[in-house]
Every structure is written in C-alpha cells, then in structure tokens.
Amino acid sequence: MPIIILRRALLGATIAVPSLARAQGRGPEGWPNGRSVSLVIAFTPGGGTDVVARIVQEQFTESFGSNFVMEHRPGASTTLGTRYVARAKPDGLTLLVGSNSAFAQAPYAFKSPGYDPQADFTPISLLYASAYVLAANPRWESLAQVIAAAKQAPGKLAYGTWGVGSTAHLLMLELCERTGVEMLHVPYGGPAPALTEILAGRLDLMFTTFAPARGHVLDGRLRALGVPHEARLAMLPAVPTMGELGYPEFLVSAWWCVAGPAGLPAPITAALEQAVRDAVARPNARMMAEEFGLLPLPLGSAAMQDRIARDLALNGPLMKKAGIVPE
Hints:
2 domains; D-Maltodextrin-Binding Protein, domain 2; 327 residues; 6-stranded mixed sheet; alpha/beta
C-alpha cells in the first residue's frame, strides 16, 4: 500500500504544479485553454472509477496543458452525474468517466433517467473492463456457508450494491435466483460505503469491483468468496471462479469509458481519443491496471458505440428476467 500512496501523492503533485505548457495551452482547435476541466465521476470517492480516472487524468493534463479535476457526483444509480454531463455545454470543460451502469443498465432501471445513452453523449473511448469479486465479512468462510444460512433465514442476510439495476445488483439477483435464496438488498451511492458496512458487520457481502476491495481482501479484513470470470484473477489466485463453485457461465460484463456531451467538436473528440490511447500505453498505467484488476478493452469512439449498443440489447431481456421494474 505505501507504494500506491506514494504514486498517488506524486501524481497529485504532478497535476497541481503549474507548467509553461499549461500556461500556454496546447489543446486542439477549440480547446478551452487555461481553464480547468471536470472529470465527472458518478460514484462516491474511493471506488474503481477513481483508479481509472487517475490514469487518464495524468495523461490528459500532459497532453492538453490544462488542469483536469475529478468531480464526484454520485446518486440515483449513477444517473445523477451522468445526466449532469449530458446537459453540459459541449465545449470540452465537462467530461464523464462513466461506466456500463450508466450507459447500458440505468436506462432499464429508470423510466426516465434524464438522458439517452446513445443520443446525448459524444463517445470518446472505452477504457478498461473491471475485475469483480464477491467480498464478504470474514465471518463467512465460503459461499456455501452463506447460501446455507440464507436458506435457513430468508431475507435476513443483507447485501450491498451501488443502486437498483447496477452490475452489482444484477449479479446478486442472479446468484439468489440460481441458489433459490432471498437476501435483503441495500443500495448505496458507490462500492466504498457498502464495503464499509460489510467491514462493520452490518452487511454480509456484495459483488464489487476489485479496486475498492483490494486492500481489505489482501489484509484479511474482507474475505473473497469467488470471482465472476472465466478464469481466476492473477491478483487472487486462491479465489475460485463462480464456475468452479458450481455456477457455470456466471460472468460479469462491466467497463469504464470517457464521454462528453453530445455535439463535442470533432477536433476535441479526436484529441481526447488519442490521449486515451496514450494514457493506457504508459508504463505506470499498465502497472496500475495489473495491480487493481483492470482488463484491456478495444479503444476508440467506434468501439465504445458498438459496446453500448450491444450491451443495451443484452441487458433489456436480462433486466426483465430479473424482475426489475423501472422506477
């Protein structure tokens, strides 16, 4: 952990120190030189999105000579911050570090999320797919133990998520359906506060991105019961996949992206797309990706458009099957 803290401290220092390039500005045509840019995050601080945002924040600052500031706007299953960006002026000053929750799930969880995931944004690029883990309070020694307890006391065990219709919610609904158990759903604004409740023993477990649970799992404060991936994670080689635990094809599709409001000028979009490519190619980005369980994805605007369309088509029937009625 000290290495991570040091790296983040150095990163913060790099961003905060003025430079000649920043003063002069070196953005593309139409770029708002000399003004701070908001990287809006629709989750509470401390989650995996923060790790991803730091990776692009560093490169964006270097590429454009502007100050990029992480701005957390959690709430309403990520729709609050996402809606804020959709309604922002397309001048490059407001960007979204978004997720599949906002673009491919929330539109089915809410009758009116306040935005159209395809029409109201300028897609810039996918960033990473996310490694997930089923994290539990250490009193639970195995998933089998959790399931047995849930069958004995329906509705007594409680799990956390970051909102109705979120990836964490869908995964737990699938688990409950496959095992025939009932658990209490307690939504939060992000994974970090839900994990805090699990650490305190007020919640039992949750599916979460690996980054916010990493330190707790490695230190033994949380127990990793399984991972919803085809293979075990390199960071957690002793933790079985859900398939190994008897639940085949129990897989997650979760990702992060960068987007702007609809109508973002083409030169700015192209420059941001290239900056994303430069960001993920940096040695420190590769190190952080490996450390926090970030998996590579195809980059660029076209790949992001295709992924949103694909996941929207897949998630509609899945949400109906899960019995989620738009609120």
